[in-house]
């Protein structure tokens, strides 16, 4: 499932190439025909991400709310601008040019394509297509895709915990600390609760807890205030790296060789995620995988004892 950094990058892509432009909206698949008709021909005025949810605001104060869920993805074709200077250096987006295709979901994939015509014909089950004169964005497989008003947007946002990108204030940190430390629920579950903190999914949950050397089964109320504040600040730090690079890079402080390998290969990026049965990178104890509330949890039973 795409985590917070991915959704923020998608919102940034819309900000670069769609905001300020009149947008043609359609539903090639047909399942979103009525919603597409509501925003067809309107100018996009804002792209915003909060946690795993993205909101595109059109004129007339109509909002397109998207939650990618497990299988959702956006495909961009045509002029696809770089998001950050670092991402351009890493080659994840490249310089603005035509005949470029970018898939943005849990991970990103960029390639040059030989488009015989623009726009390219939709391929597969495209729920909604948004198009300017130069760029096309096709959405596939979302959990949620709806046109709503400002009041409904406010209702959705009120249910979400703080997102450091949109609210990295002392008050947001205090809210996070209070939410964790007043509950008997295991901290490994609390970090996945989007009403407590927005954007953390399975990967960041496992990596944050290992970096903090916290046992995921520790009740939130038993985690010290200093530890909870450190979790928040580490989430701020890792989320910024993810947005800048397009990767969940959690093994910082490594040698240049290790860092280079991590950027090239996902299996080299993590301390514990998807490393069950392999030796811990710190203590050599075998990493454990278990189910916690039906989601896979990875941790080191020694370093996180």
From TrEMBL:
According to the entry, every stretch annotated as the FPG-type domain falls at 271-305
Tell me the cofactors it needs. Answer: Zn(2+)
Instruction: Please give the Pfam families that the UniProt record associates with this protein.
Output: Fapy_DNA_glyco, H2TH, zf-FPG_IleRS
Q: Does the keyword Ribonucleoprotein apply?
A: no
Its EC number is 4.2.99.18
**GO annotation terms (biological process):** base-excision repair
Keywords, ordered alphabetically: DNA damage, DNA repair, DNA-binding, Glycosidase, Hydrolase, Lyase, Metal-binding, Multifunctional enzyme, Zinc, Zinc-finger
The GO terms describing molecular function are: class I DNA-(apurinic or apyrimidinic site) endonuclease activity; damaged DNA binding; oxidized pyrimidine nucleobase lesion DNA N-glycosylase activity; zinc ion binding
Q: Which SUPFAM superfamilies match?
A: Glucocorticoid receptor-like (DNA-binding domain), N-terminal domain of MutM-like DNA repair proteins, S13-like H2TH domain
Family classification: Belongs to the FPG family.
State the name under which the record lists this protein: DNA-(apurinic or apyrimidinic site) lyase
Q: Which organism is it from?
A: Subtercola vilae
């Amino acid at each position: 499932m795409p985590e917070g950094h991915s959704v923020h990058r998608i919102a940034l892509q819309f900000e670069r190439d769609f905001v300020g432009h009149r947008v043609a909206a359609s539903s090639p698949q047909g399942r979103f025909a009525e919603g597409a008709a509501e925003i067809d021909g309107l100018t996009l005025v804002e792209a915003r991400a909060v946690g795993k949810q993205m909101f595109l605001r059109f004129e007339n104060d109509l909002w397109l709310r998207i939650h990618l869920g497990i299988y959702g993805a956006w495909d961009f074709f045509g002029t696809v601008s770089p998001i950050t200077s670092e991402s351009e250096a890493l080659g994840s987006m490249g310089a603005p040019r035509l005949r470029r295709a970018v898939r943005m979901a849990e991970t990103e994939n960029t390639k040059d394509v030989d488009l015989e015509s623009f726009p390219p014909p939709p391929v597969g089950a495209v729920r909604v297509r948004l198009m300017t004169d130069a760029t096309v964005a096709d959405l596939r497989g979302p959990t949620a895709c709806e046109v709503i008003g400002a009041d409904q947007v406010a209702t959705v946002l009120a249910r979400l915990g703080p997102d450091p990108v949109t609210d990295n204030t002392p008050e947001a940190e205090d809210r996070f600390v209070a939410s964790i430390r007043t509950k008997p629920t295991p901290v490994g579950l609390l970090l996945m609760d989007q009403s407590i903190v927005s954007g953390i999914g399975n990967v960041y949950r496992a990596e944050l807890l290992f970096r903090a050397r916290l046992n995921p089964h520790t009740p939130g109320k038993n985690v010290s205030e200093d530890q909870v504040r450190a979790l928040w600040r580490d989430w701020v730090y890792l989320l910024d790296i993810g947005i800048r690079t397009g990767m969940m890079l959690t093994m910082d402080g490594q040698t240049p060789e290790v860092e280079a390998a991590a950027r090239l290969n996902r299996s080299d990026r993590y301390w514990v995620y998807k490393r069950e049965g392999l030796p811990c990178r710190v203590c050599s104890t075998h990493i454990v995988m278990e189910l916690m509330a039906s989601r896979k949890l990875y941790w080191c039973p020694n370093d996180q004892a």
